[in-house]
Amino acid sequence: MRIAIIDADLIGRKRHKFPNLVCMKLSGFYKEQGALVHLKLDYEDLQEYDKVFISKVFTDTPVPSEVLELPNVTYGGTGFFYDKAPRLSEEIEHHMPDYHLYDDWVAKQLAAGGKKCEYTYYTDYSIGFLTRGCFRKCSFCVNQNYDRVHVHSALSEFLDVSRKKICMLDDNFLGCPSWKEMLDELKATGKPFQFKQGLDERLLTDEKCEALFSGKYDGDFIFAFDNVADAELIEKKMVLARKYTDRVLKFYCFTGFDRADKWDDNFWKQDIFDLFTRIEILMKHKCLPYVMRFNRYEESPYRGVYISIARWCNQPSFFKKKSLREFAELNEKVF
Ligand code: SF4
Q1: Most-buried pick from 131, 147, 273, 288 (CB within 10 A)?
Q2: Does the CB atom of residue 138 touch ligand 1 within 6 A?
Q3: Which residue of 143, 230, 252 sits with most ligand 1 atoms within 8 Å of its CB, as the best mutation to test the pocket?
C-alpha cells in the first residue's frame, strides 16, 4: 500500500518549524502495517496513492479545496475542524510517532544552508501529550470540550530513548491530579524536557515549584498571563516561584481578543493599556513577556502599536536593554 502524508502547515507556512505529531503517528502506524509511507511536499499526483492523509494545526494554512474532494484523501486536525476535529482511532493516537518521517526533508533543508538549530524539534526531541484537556475554557482557546485535565498517554508511548530531549504539548499539565508522578517519571529519564504550550502559573504551589524547578528543564520556563484580571494571583505566584528559581520565567501574553465581543475603540485602547500593565508586572519580577496577538488585531486602529510592542517584547535582547520608546525610535516606528 502506498500512503502519502501531507503536513499542510509545512507546505503552507514559510517559517513553520515544528513536526506534526498526527502525521508522525499515522506514519508509524502504517509503516508497521508494511505500507510505503511518503511525506508529500505538494498536492500533485495524489491519485497515485492508495491513501492520502492531510493534517494541519493552523486554521489559516491554505489547502486547495479540490484536493479535499478526492476519494483517497482523509483530512483532519484543529486547522480544519478547530474544536470539532474528529479523533484519531485509539491505535493510531497511542502509536509511537515515526520520528524519521521528516528525515529527508530536514536533510534537504540543511543541505540548502539551513541551520541545524532550527530543526531540532525534528531531530532531537521525543514529542507527545502526557495529559490532555483543561478546565478553564478560555473563550479564545480551542480547548472547549473538557471539564478537567486527564492522563492521556504514558511517557513510554512516545519516548524514543535515542533522542536527547522531550517536548510535551500538554494543555494544562499542572492541572492534572497525577502531575507529580508524571514529573518524577520525566525527571528519571535524565533528559531535558519542556512544556511547549506553557504552564498554568496560577496553579503553582510550594510542592509544584520544588518539583518543577529542580528538574532538568529545557529552555525557559513558559507560563501564561493572558488576562489582566488575574494580575493579583499571577503576581502572588511569581513571588512564590522566585523562592525556588532565579531562571528566566517567560509568560505568553495573549492580546487583541475582546472577551465582551464588542471590538470597539474602547476595547482596543483598554486592551493595549492592560497589556502594558501585564508587562510592567512581569518586569517588576524579572520575567519576560512573549506577546501573542489574536489575528483580529489587524482590524485595530492601533495595529502598529500592537506590532511594535510585540517586536519589542518578543526579542529579549531588546526588551532587556531598551525601553519601548527607545526601541520604537531605533526602528523609526511612528505611533
Ligand atoms: S488555560 Fe490555557 S489551555 Fe486552558 S482553556 Fe485557557 S488557554 Fe486553553
Answers
A1: 131
A2: yes
A3: 143
